[in-house]
Amino acid sequence: MRKFFTSLSTKTAAALIIPVVCCIQACTNSNTLNEQVVIEAFNKVLILDSISSRIPDNLSYDDSLVLADRIVDGWIREQVLLAQAEKSLQWAELKFEQKIENYRNALLVSEYENQYVNSRLNRNVTEDEISAFHKMNPELFKLPEHVVRAVFIHLPEEENDLDSAKIWLQEADSSSIPRLEKWCIERNATFGLDSEYWWFLSDLFDQVPLQVYRVEDMLKNRKVVEFTSDKRTYLLHVLDHRLKDLPSPLEIASERIEEIIIQNRRKNLLDELRDDLVKEAWSLGLISRDSIQH
Known about the structure:
The chain is of the alpha+beta class. The protein has helices spanning 10-27, 48-52, 61-88, 93-118, 127-136, 163-171, 176-186, 201-207, 215-220, 250-283, and strands at residues 37-41, 44-47, 147-156, 190-192, 198-200, 225-229, 232-242.
């Protein structure tokens, strides 16, 4: 057994580890290694098994030595700091012990509640549930900025044959969109052709750098807009819009609504658990209470 002194250097620790690594590589299957003490500090020990379990089998001897050295050095530092903390905080021992107890209790309760909920929580949320929640709570989903449903393409400015693309973009239906997508791919054009997708206006302008002076007029326009910028030609068709501070479309809010519904289910499960456990404890006589004397 090697005793620890605060003056022990990293090099000394490394020298101590060399025979340990040899043992790990030569005898990893030996049960006698499990309790072999590598180093002792402040009446606590680090055993060989704790080190070997953290060293991957495929490491070379040199890499194993480096990693083992780090493990031992980290353990030493942890023990030194822990010992110093315990020494320095003795004056507040009662208060500190209470904090430790509170933390332990919180961890136990949290772990139990998580296991309880995870084994019972229904995470399937239907579209009808999402839609109903959205209708009942529109104030929760006010838009921070304008949003639009829009389709667009952009391609090198020298492309002149845009008539078909404009027609398909104007129609933007299940028949025209596949043809327009094929047309874009053939010309290596960039496109956004999901007619059901809602864009925040700032995100759309990142894709389509249209200069707009009267935003609301632009949003109301349902015709294909053509413009050029940085030697590229852009075609944009706004299909629908919703103004800032109005309730958001369901498609934008659906993911958040699903999370809210699941969290509400979690809360209800925990509330029921706590109520049931309290009722059971009273019924079993595990809780007693004296009346307050006036």
